Amino acid sequence: MIVGASAGVPHPDVGDAGTLVAESVVVVVVAAAVAVDVDRSLDSAVVPSLPLPLQPASTVRRSATTTAAAPGERPVEDMRVIMPELFDWYPPPMAPPTFPSGLDEHALPSTSIIETWIEEVFSHGVRRPGYDADVWAEQFIAEQFRDFGLESVRLELANLTRWTPHDCSVRFVTSDGTTREIDAFPLPHAPAVADLEVELVVFDDDHPELAAGKAALVDAPLLSAAPATFAHMNVDPDDTEPRVYDPDGTFADESHLLPFTRFVQDVTDSTAAAGAAVFLGTLTGYPADSFRYYVPYTGEPGAIPGVWISGTDGAWLRERAAEGPVTVHISIDVTDEPFVSHNVVGELPGADDEVVMIGSHHDGPWSSAVEDGTGIALVLAQAKFWATQPPEARPHRLVFVVQAGHMCGAAGLHAYIETHRDVLEQVVLAVHLEHAALDAVERDGELVVSDRCTPRWFFTSRNPNLERSVFDSIVAEDLRRSMLLVPDAIGPRPTTDGSYYFDEGVPIVQFLSAPFYLFDEMDTLDKVDRTNLLPLTRAAVRIVESTRGVSASAMRAGTRSS
Q1: For the sheet containing 55-56, what is the strand order?
Q2: Angle separating helix axes 111-123 and 132-148, nearest 10 degrees
Q3: Which of 111, 513, 554, 561 could pair with 435 as two cysteines, CB 3.0-4.6 Å apart?
C-alpha cells in the first residue's frame, strides 16, 4: 500500500512544538496496500509542506507534553495538547442501533465462523503470490462462494512474478579479524548474488558518493504519526463534518507506528544511485528487533542486491565500522519466475443490474493472519450474508472480487481493471475490506498484543451523502478508533489493494488499518481484532445498503474531485 502526502496542503500551526518532521522524511509513506508507481517528483524538497508530524519513530523530539510510558515502552506525544484541531469527538450511540429494515439480521455469520475462516487460511502457511498456500486460498474462496450460492463463480487470470528466497548468507570480518555471521532477509525481487566480497560503509546522505562500489549500511526506522492526523489530510477547509470517531480520546496519547520506513517502497533508490554494490538496511528501533520485513512488494526487479538486518546487528556493525575497515561476504540465492495466479469472482443478482463491488486480496507476505486473512474472511462474511437475502433485498447486483498478487505490484487489481474497464461505469460503489488488526507494543524486549485495535482508516469518495453514510455506520456499530479519510489523504490514491479503482473514477469505500507488523512474520492469529469482526461486517452491510436507490451516475454526480 502506498502512501504519500501532497505538496501544497496548508500546514497547520503547531506552535512552539515545531513540526516534528525529521529532515530526511520523504513525503511518500505507504501504509498497507499497494499503489506501486510512486510519483518520483515527491521528494524531500517538499517535506516542509507536510500537513502532519510524520517522522522516523526513533527520532521523535519529545516535548513537555510527552506522556509517561509503562516500563519498557516508548513515551508518546500528547497530540491533543500540541495539535487540538486534529481531534473531533463524536459521542457513542445511546442505544443499540436498528439494523437496516428489510434485511435478515439473523443471517449474519457469527464471530466464531469468521474466525474459523481466518484460522483456516493462516494454517496453510506462507501465502506469497504463486505459493502453494495462495493457490489453495483461491480454491478455498471459490468453494465458499459456490457453497453460499453465488452465481458465475470463476477464476480470472492475473499474471505475476513468483519470488522465492532459497538461501541468504551475510558474514562480516572486522578490523581485528573477528568474523560474525548475522541473520538477514533478502529484499523481495532484488538480484541474487554469489560469494561477493566488498567493503562496508555507513551510508551518508550528505556524501552518497562514498558508498560507490561498497556495501551501504543504511538506518531505516519506521515512520510514525499522530493517528488522527490522517483524517484531516487533504480535506476541504470548509468541510466541517466529523471524521474521527474516538469517543474515549485514545488518539490523544499515542503515536501510530506505521509499517514503512522513510524509503517506502523505493528502498534502494538512493544507494543504487550512489553506485553502491549492496544495500544493508538496518531496521532501527523495530519492535522485537525483527528483520523479516517483506518490503518492497512492487514485483519489479531491484536495482542492486539487498537485505534487511535487525537494529541490534546494525548497531554492532556501525560500531565496528567506526573502529576500522569491515569486509562483507554476502550470498543471496533467490528466483523470480512468471506465474499465472487468479482473481476469484462471484456474483449475486440484486434489485437492479448496476453493481456494488465487495473485495479484498488473497495473498500475503507470510502466513499473514491480518494481511490479509482478515480481508478474505470479511469478504466471505459479506458473501454469506447477502446470499441469504432475496434478490430484491440486495440494493444492486453484487460482485465479489478477491484479488491476486497484492504483494506483487497489485497484479490482480490491474488485471481486473483491464478485463472489466468497460463495465466500471456501472459500479455504484467499490467496497474494499482489509486488515482487522490489534495494536502491539514492545515491553522489555517482548512483543505484547494490546486489547485495542490499530487505528482504522475508511477511505471514502468525496460524496457528502456517502461520507455521512459511512461515518454513521461506524458510529452505529461503535467502531471506535476509526477515521474517515478522503481517497487521496496520504497519496494520489488510497493505500489499499483496491486503490486504482479510484483512478478509474469508481466511487469507493475502502477499509484498512496499518499496524507496524503488517509485512512481518509476526503477523499471527493473536493480532486479529476478533472482537470487531462482526461489527465490521455489520458496518459494511450498512454501507452497501446505503446505496439502495442510488445509481452509478448519481453517485458520481454527487462526488467532488477534490
Answers
A1: 55-56, 222-225, 256-261
A2: 150
A3: 513
Helix, coil or strand: residue 175:
coil
Q: Quickly count: other Cβ atoms within 10 Å of residue 180's Cβ.
A: 14
Judge contact between 23 and 3, C-beta under 8 A: no
Q: What are phi and psi of 379, to 5 degrees?
A: -70, -40
Alpha-helical regions (H) of 235-374:
269-273, 311-323
Amino acid of residue 444? D
Q: What is the pTM of this model?
A: 0.86
Integer Cα distance of 292 and 280 in angstroms = 13
Q: How many CB atoms lie within 10 A of CB 119?
A: 14
Per-residue pLDDT of the chain (562 residues; tens, 9 = 90+): 433 333 322 222 223 222 222 323 333 333 333 333 333 222 222 222 223 344 444 433 222 233 334 444 433 334 444 444 444 555 555 566 789 999 999 999 999 999 999 999 999 999 999 999 999 999 999 999 999 999 999 999 999 999 999 999 999 999 999 999 999 999 999 999 999 999 999 999 999 999 999 999 999 999 999 999 999 999 998 888 899 999 999 999 899 999 999 999 999 999 999 999 999 999 999 999 999 999 999 999 999 999 999 999 999 999 999 999 999 999 999 999 999 999 999 999 999 999 999 999 999 999 999 999 999 999 999 999 999 999 999 999 999 999 999 999 999 999 999 999 999 999 999 999 999 999 999 888 789 999 999 999 999 999 999 999 999 999 999 999 999 999 999 999 999 999 999 999 999 999 999 999 999 999 999 999 999 999 999 999 999 999 999 999 999 999 887 7
